[in-house]
């Protein structure tokens, strides 16, 4: 009886792939599509391809590490396996925790943009997007405290709805797209420089980061040696193709100037030429459902991450305490998200998030390279993945310093604070132990 029960509770390949797709096709594509077009112009499909290739190489490292070290901590566990209990591992795990907050801010900002855009079509410009941003963060926090089961149900519903709508958008968008006068925008003469295309891909890299959620589910995946790698590869490849298709339809349907005007809700605006106002409304609703589910799932994942990091004494022990039956870290994350989402612009948030995950993913690739004999990983793929992440981070930094220094300043401030805070906390713990 026990064996059958455990068999039923395991996650199959289909469910594991859904976790990866659901994590990636969350709020990212709705939030950063307009920004990516602004940076790469007609070459935006190339930008998504470049970012996707880096994500795919990193997914290889994650797959190998997930099979060798299946743990609910996912990335947290991999970092400890690579560097042990140290200031370096603590600082990196703190960066991961803060990156969750950045992602929450991105999703919340996107929700606010699409929600306020819905009011604009009625001629009511009074409702500010920050009202929606704050409301959705508070509401999602309430749901997480109320019931984890509800969070799971919201996520399951949202994954189905957003994929149906996005696939319908792509299918309808390709129908007769070559006859649209804006289709010429996709020609190479309308692409930005290669460096700008790469930079554009790195700014929007946050749209791919969600595949790492598979690592947190690795202990429960049925036939892990076979299904865990497949879950990573299938989900990442599917999303790469989906994003490229969305980028082609958007640029081929809508003038650059119109995309720029509606940068924060570009995907909804791109539905207008084919479907009119109804299309705008449907995509806006899909974006709101999608970002809402992403906020719920990320709040849950972020609170669990800081709880686990605190158990290893990398964060203050207050993060392990409970409030209304849930980790106190959930409330702390929500407060930080409220502040960031309401004070920092979307591009800076996206840049900070992409920079953070490029560093984290670069480190994971390095750990896979370092542990390659133990985890039976290919030396070339892991080291190329590491080099690509670091080069992409450098290109992103240089490009953003020239055009949007705020995002890079925020990113480096976060890096410095995470490591300085960890060093001071470790020093405090040592003194505390010495006095006992």
From TrEMBL:
Domain of life: Bacteria
Gene3D superfamilies membership: Amino acid/polyamine transporter I
Main location: membrane
Keywords assigned: Cell membrane, Membrane, Transmembrane, Transmembrane helix
Membrane-traversing stretches: 12-37, 43-63, 83-110, 130-147, 159-177, 197-219, 231-257, 277-302, 323-344, 350-369, 381-401, 407-425
One Gene Ontology cellular component: plasma membrane
One Pfam family linked to the record: AA_permease_2
Compartment(s) of residence: Cell membrane
Topology within the bilayer: Multi-pass membrane protein
GO molecular function, one term: transmembrane transporter activity
Record-given protein name: APC family permease
Species assigned in the record: Flammeovirga agarivorans
Organism taxonomic ancestry: Bacteria, Pseudomonadati, Bacteroidota, Cytophagia, Cytophagales
């Amino acid at each position: 009886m026990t064996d059958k029960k455990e068999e039923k509770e395991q996650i199959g390949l289909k469910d594991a792939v859904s976790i990866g797709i659901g994590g990636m096709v969350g709020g990212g594509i709705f939030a950063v599509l307009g920004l990516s077009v602004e940076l790469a112009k007609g070459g935006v499909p190339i930008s998504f391809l470049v970012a996707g290739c880096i994500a795919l190489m990193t997914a290889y490292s994650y797959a190998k590490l997930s099979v060798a070290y299946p743990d609910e901590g996912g990335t947290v566990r991999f970092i400890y396996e690579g560097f042990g209990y140290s200031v370096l591992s603590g600082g990196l795990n703190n960066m991961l925790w803060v990156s969750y907050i950045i992602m929450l801010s991105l999703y919340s900002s996107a929700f606010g943009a699409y929600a306020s855009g819905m009011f604009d079509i009625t001629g009511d410009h009074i409702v500010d997007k920050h009202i929606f941003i704050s409301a959705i963060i508070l509401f999602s926090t309430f749901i997480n405290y109320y019931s984890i089961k509800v969070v799971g149900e919201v996520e399951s519903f949202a994954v189905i709805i957003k994929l149906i709508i996005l696939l319908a958008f792509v299918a309808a968008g390709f129908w007769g797209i070559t006859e649209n006068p804006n289709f010429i925008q996709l020609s190479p003469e309308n692409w930005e420089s290669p460096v700008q295309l790469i930079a554009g891909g790195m700014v929007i890299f946050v749209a791919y980061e969600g595949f790492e959620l598979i690592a947190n589910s690795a202990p429960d995946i049925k036939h892990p040696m076979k299904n865990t790698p497949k879950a990573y590869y299938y989900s990442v490849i599917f999303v790469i193709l989906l994003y490229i298709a969305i980028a082609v339809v958007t640029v081929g349907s809508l003038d650059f100037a119109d995309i720029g005007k509606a940068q924060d809700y570009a995907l909804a605006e791109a539905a207008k030429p084919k479907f009119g106002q109804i299309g705008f409304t449907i995509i806006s609703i899909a974006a709101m459902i999608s970002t809402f589910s992403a906020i719920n799932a990320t709040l849950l994942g972020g609170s669990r991450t800081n709880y686990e990091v605190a158990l290893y004494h990398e964060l203050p022990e207050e993060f392990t305490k409970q409030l209304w039956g849930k980790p106190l870290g959930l409330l702390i994350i929500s407060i930080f998200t409220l502040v960031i989402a309401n004070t920092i612009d979307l591009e800076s948030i996206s840049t900070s998030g992409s920079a953070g995950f490029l560093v984290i993913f670069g480190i994971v690739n390095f750990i896979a390279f370092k542990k390659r004999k133990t985890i039976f990983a290919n030396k070339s793929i892991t080291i190329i993945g590491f080099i690509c992440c670091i080069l992409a981070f450098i290109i992103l930094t240089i490009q953003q310093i020239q055009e949007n220094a705020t995002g890079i300043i925020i990113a480096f401030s976060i890096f410095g604070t995470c490591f300085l805070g960890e060093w001071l906390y470790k020093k405090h713990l040592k003194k505390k132990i010495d006095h006992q």
